[in-house]
Amino acid sequence: METTKRGFCWKLFLLYYLFVEGSAQDFAQTQFICTSVPKDMDICAATLQNGVPGENLKTTVMQLRETVLQQKETIMNQKETIRELTSKLTRCEGQSAPETGDARPGGRRKDPGTKNTMGDVSRGPADSLTQLSQTLQSLKQRLENLEQFSRNNNSVQANSLKDLLQTKIDDLEKQVLSRVNSIEDGKPGLRNETEQRGRVESTLTSMHQRITDLEKDQKENRPLDKFQLTFPLRTNYMYAKVKKSLPEMYALTVCMWLKSNASPGVGTPFSYAVPGQANELVLIEWGNNPMEILINDKVAKLPFLINDGKWHHICVTWTTRDGVWEAFQDGVMRGSGENLAPYHPIKPQGVLILGQEQDTLGGGFDATQAFVGDLANFHIWDRKLSVGEIYNLATCSSKAQVGNVFSWLESSLDIYGGASKWTFEPCRQLN
Q: Domain spanning 227-430 has what CATH number?
């Protein structure tokens, strides 16, 4: 009996140390004294009489009970996790089943595009192989997690489920190898599909070439000046660029056909920038301002009213001597002035852009200043045209001339950003 009591005392204090003190090192440095206790005497009272704190011992017992309850709750959670994993394994097993037919008696092979039990659309062997590989990787990851779970919790159920997972993984690896072999055996069919795709692509290429040839014939049969540029949106990327620069000019005439109903302002029909001066020659109407002509960043306001959605012919003439300018709309002079950049020649080696205003040489476009509408028959001369010559241009007279500095030809422009090109007869609205 004495030995039994001493053993109980030893176990009690050992449990006290393990759950309260919590350190093997402290255990090595702690001394325990055990004394015999009469059979019918209260143990806690006896320990109190012998100098052992009974209240602490009661607290230890309560903590041990709490620990036991927590362990039971943990075990229940682990069992729930195991049931969930088992359910997922069952679904994975159903997903990785061969798709040769329905599992029920008399079942038919699934048609392409039919959803399987996992909600995915059944596809070809390569897709099935991908699904199997993904399932395999997922199960391997779960196995690693379960091994860690087993090491931490020493759970018999976890080890059992780990063995089950390993078996499933082995089966899936065999299925993957089987699918690979099936794909290798089916290579002749894939080769036939590749050949068929090649024939289709060849046919499409041939049709595209025929369409290109037809468009080329249409372009060759159409006069190169019978076209218009359309800028449907106010953007900073739609524009046309003239392929050559302007020469140095001491006088000029600029004429064109315009149609727009944009508001506020039609934007910038053209801009010419040179190194060191972005506003060397610009025609612009933006915001609520009237249309303006800029030469060397000097401004003259023009009396044009064109944003009514109809075609209008406009011309601006200028000479460097005294900076004299004149403005014509539909063959009629609407305004004139002087002191516009007097004695400043238009400089060469610049960039001429249609549809955008340049803040830098060839760039720096601002969408708010972009031209919206149609533009055609843009011409530039290095002299001042007479009133009669401008009238002939506006009325499509047979005596009308083309620009000697820039002439409106498709081959003279590069078009960017989606601006479109259409056939255009400049005087069709006059008929």
A: 2.60.120.200
- List, for residues 316-354, the tens digit of each pLDDT value: 999 999 999 999 999 999 999 999 999 999 999 999 999
Instruction: Give how far the C-alpha of residue 19 lies from the chain's centroid of Cα atoms, to the nearest Å.
Output: 57
What's the mean pLDDT in 257-267? 93
Q: CB-based burial of residue 324 (10 Å sphere; 0-12 exposed, 13-18 middle, 19+ buried)?
A: middle
Domain positions in the chain: 2-52, 227-430
Contact in structure between 395 and 224 (CB atoms under 8 Å):
no
pLDDT digits (tens, 9 = 90+) for 283-323: 999 888 999 999 999 999 999 999 899 999 999 999 999 99
| Interacting residues of 73 by C-beta distance below 8 A, sequence separation 6+ | none
Q: Give the span between the Cα atoms of 402 and 71, in whole angstroms.
A: 98
- Paired with 241 in beta bridges are 353, 414
Residue range 262-289: mean pLDDT, rounded: 95
CA distance 80 to 86: 10
CA dist., res. 326 & res. 304, Å (int): 12
Helix (H) or strand (E) segment spanning residue 10: helix 2-16
Which amino acid, one-letter code, is at 380? I
Task: Report which DSSP code applies to 429.
Answer: G
Give the CA diameter of the chain: 138
Cα–Cα distance list, 152 to 17, 80, 159 (Å): 21, 17, 12
Rounded-to-integer distance, Cα 389 and Cα 277, Å: 31
Alpha carbons 307 and 291: distance in angstroms, whole number:
11
Classify the phi-psi angles of 301: left when phi > 0, otherwise alpha if psi is within -120 to 50, otherwise beta: beta
Residue with tokens 């949106």: 233
